[in-house]
User: What shape does this take?
Amino acid sequence: MYKDIEVIEKYINAADYLTVAQIFLKDNFFLERKLKYSDLKKNLKGHWGTSPGVNFIYAHLINFSKKYKSKCSLVIGTGHAAEALLSNLFLEGTLELYYGLKRNQSGIESLISIQERFKIRSEINPQFPGTLYDGGELGYSLSFAQGSVMGDKEKIVFCIVGDGEAETGTISAAWQAQKLLNLSYDGQVIPILNLNRFKMGNPSLFSSMTDMEILNFFQALRYDVKIIHYDHKEMISALDWAFECVKKQRNPLIVFCSLKGQVQEFDGASEIIGQYSHKVPLKEALAKQENIEILERWLTSYKPRDIFEDRKISDELLSFTKNSCLGKNILYAVKDGKEDNYTLVEEDVNILCENSTYNVECLDKYIEKLLYEDDNFMVFSPDELGSNRFFRLDKLKESSNRIKEILNENICMSWLQGHIQSGGNGILISYEAFAPILDSMVSQYCKYLYQSKKIIWRGKKSSLNFILTSLWWTNVYSHQNPGFVDNLLMQSWDFVQCYFPIDKVTLLLCSEESFKSYNKVNIVVCSKHENTFFLNFHEAKEAVELGYYDWNTQNSNPNLVICTIGESSLAEGKKAIKIFEETMENISVKLISVLSFKFFDNEKLVKKLFSLNPAIFVYHGYKNTIKSRIFGRIDNKKVRILGYENRSDISGNTLEKLSSNHLSHVDIVNNMYELIGVDNLNDEYGRDINEKYE
Assistant: This one.
């Protein structure tokens, strides 16, 4: 049972040695002479503290994957384990496949100087072939791992959760979210709590708990728990036990107790472990000879002569990693023929729209159809399907494993992210007001996507898709926040697309475009209420492709242009134009509805429409987003921007909410009059208009 311990020990020594070398060394990589000042890097970067624990776990998972020939992979919660992960990817041969780093002298030297030579950052990121998750912002590793096993019952994903990371709210919720996996349909996540006693610098909360308290805590969450220490026999036994739990469809959890910065005993070892080991211990090594001597003893403790043979990785270690698939098989491709699953023709659209009272009702039918036809598509929602009038999906979730609801937006996002990074497709449906809870998380994903798009071997993945409804102008003040779209648009990512469909048909076609796309973040903002606009299929198709709809194309030389973005903006814009045309003669108005922000990418069109004519933008969200889109493009002082002002201090009817934000038809009419040199409507006339057109 324990016959592999000796080689596992050598493997861990090799991984630890290469980790330390990456942080400190620029020469004398094999310690063939006494270490001196000139052998050290001038700019010491990296994180040691979490690395030995990761190396220990990784070594045993290699042994596990070989023993059971299981379809397993690893998610590492902390991004600080970069040097450790690189060491393991090198030792198992993954870096040779993707970067040509052979496990010989040249490869070892390249690995140790990898930050400079390959411009690889000292944090886990998409440049690392053995990861789908970078962990820059703590808290999402466990729920990401859960999302990555959904729909694949053969898959086992180990997830290393740091005891510091375990203090975040999302991890706290994710322990329970495991209950929503169906183990006869989904794969299994085996969490490993890396209890090394310290966060960045302070003791972790878990370190203050007794073994019995920890057991009681996780057993109450329906986990089978094993608490182990930095001991090879204990870890081998725990992984065997975990595999038996998986076969019985139980939920195993391993609590791995060690000390942050774990090293063997040697003179000066106390300087490397514990509270101050988080980043670079011995950082004064450049200035103090005594620290250089400690570093030399540290490196020597890993027995480099057993690791290296003729300046290459020993044959024994090469043999140990020969059949390991831990890092090599983690890149999942999108299934072929994806686009065909989501394509809508005119007949499909007509059927979906037939007898659909609300805008989202036709989308509800469309997604239901996808769930029956495509076993790779999933729906996630923070307990809002019924409230958002996705009644079919709400009912279907009782019998479907591919509709998951939990009242936690971050968990839903993590699940979706894990699912699409594992080759799936899907959507997150949420209230508009609560989507900003995800702002930071989605920004992190955008950074990951930005880096991934530069790496050829990453390939294409389905887009991250959101449907936002229960919009602000239909809700009470506490439920008003259109800022999710604005926050993402202000970051200027070229792969973020925001849609504002104006009817059922454009809603379906905007959703279709989102589902068929790759490597994007798509947000569809739509009302759950009925509206009176309806384009035919061909009009809607063209409008979605262009990103806008021109309501009066024959008017090529208007006196005034109204540009609406969002359903309420269009409704109020149409009312305003009707009033205006009843009171003013010989003044023509052009109405443009923006369906997606790709419209603003057409600089020639934007200049043509808005540079010469007085214009009003009426936007669903915050004004600054539109300002950022037209800044430097439109040299026209007769341009007004109306947008949400976060001033709805009442819970009245729709008109009152719009008026509070100066977005009602009366506000639009007043601006129209001002732009053509006519006095504002007086208050009395304004009240008459309200009564007439309310």
Notes: The first helix runs from residue 5 to 24. The mean pLDDT is 91.
